[in-house]
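Please check this protein record:
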Amino acid sequence: MRGGIGPISLRDTTDNPSVLTGAIDPMRSAAFTTLLVLTACGTTGRQDNEFVQPNELMGQEISRRVDEIRYQHRDVLVNNLLWLSQAGEQAIPALLDGLRHEDPKVRANCSWVLAEIGDRRVIPYLQPMTKDSTEAVRLEAARTLVVLGDLKQVPVLIEGLDSERPLVRFNCHEALKRATAREFEYDHLTDDRLARSHAVYRWRRWWAEQSNDPFFAASYAQTHGLRTDEAMDGGGGEQPAKPDGEMQPMPLTPTPTPQGDAGSGSPQRDGQ
């Protein structure tokens, strides 16, 4: 290859005595070194270059705020999460790093902020989090993925509707509502277990039709001893179970429910 860097051919050895004698051509060596440096930078910076990068001062502030999530509670935590979500795309690299943080509270809340930012490019980074060692992180990752449009985690959230913890039921149902614009008269606070089971069955029946998996609903009805006709009669005029076209995520509400607190008023997730 003449006039550039390329494989050494017989013509190269004939025209370039340095190849035969073992001498190093300074120009060729410098060009090759530059190419190696550029290649290395392109490889290591590929993930960072996928998203808008903050300037140095903003980057330090974002990283500090992500790291301090583990020490924060109540309003301080809520305000920090809102600040990070409002920082937008430039906060995403630090939040993705936060998904690997040793503290599950940080991992879960970084997932929440990514849902608020709403950039679907983060979906591949969140998918492994559904296998996290901490249940709260797994559920938050599933919630975020569903909100962003990855509906494969819908069954996880529907199963969460039967949790013994009202907080888990609330968060799972909120994510399902946002992503599908459906409710099926589910009330996470009701003491009427039969009414709640009927609503969960309607959610399962809807998903069974979406995924062509009738066992998902039928097995639940059998386990809970439900009469399916009674369960479906309580639907209260919900939308048809089989929607037209592709389901799109609904816009997120601006009210965070941060992971790691147990406060009054709106439910707060705990990190246990």
Q: What stands out?
A: The radius of gyration is 26 Å. Residues 149-253 form one domain. The chain has 14 helices and no strands. The chain has a mean pLDDT of 79.
